[in-house]
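Hey L., structure's done. Input below.
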Amino acid sequence: MMINSDSDYPVIPDDNARLWVNCWRSMGGESFQVSDEVQADLWNKRSDGFGKDGDEERQIKKTEEFFEILKKAGFSPKGANVLDIGCGPGSHSIPLAKAGATVTSLDISRGMLDRLCETAEKEGLPVRTYECSWWTADIDKLGFRNAFDLVIASKTPGIRDVETFNRMMACSRNYCYYGGFLSKHPGKIPEDIYVKILEESPKLNPLSSGFLYPFVYLYTLGIHPVIKLSNRTVKFDEPWDEAADKTIESLRINQELSDETVSKIREYFRDNSVNGVYNSDYETYSGMMVWSVKSLYQGLVQE
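Output:
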């Protein structure tokens, strides 16, 4: 397996890989219709409460599973140089820094990075941060190419297509970690409203930035990652207007919504609330995987 020296793109070995790349492109990239500026604004608005669900036991379990799969793949954080793409408030960056890694954390949201820096300062952890969109990042100007022992991207819209996924791999000289959804209820909204959203964004595929497309892509490249799948039941019990606003914000991360669709979503939450409170539960399925990129660089093509 080889990778071109002047790009982030691996030399595709056969028709299976080429066809899957074409499939991923046709189903994924055009679904993201919003700009970097809109993305940054949306995530800044969510930054104060993001990840603060109060379920400390679940967070501890998630961190344990994260380190378990890294260990199973052969990675040790102590002394390692790590890049965390779409780091958010630091749910992976902080534990990695505590475990002895030198961590570089990148996010499009200044609000998320401020939360991470506040935690890192309290813990006395040296975490370097970059306010940057991964969609348009220049990894050579940033000095990221082949610079990290581990590059991670966990459930981040920063990895939206094969190009941004390849860019992630190009920053690693050894391991990569990726986490994404296999199945996720589309914003807790009924089918008829979701059909309306699809009519407005006909190429929208909410799972194109999830787990399936990157996993099959790696498999067609001859890479068999260590994987772990999980599911979770999510329960909501909150004022209907807050639930509606969260759903609208979540959907707007991927595409623009018409005033009519926004109105229908708000009407749905209002009409299905009891005494002003909306109750709901749904299941999500997600996966995480770790692999070595070393095989991609064997026989590197020189300019």
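Residues 15-185+203-232+286-297 form a domain with the Rossmann fold fold (CATH 3.40.50.150). The chain has one domain: 15-185+203-232+286-297.

-- N.
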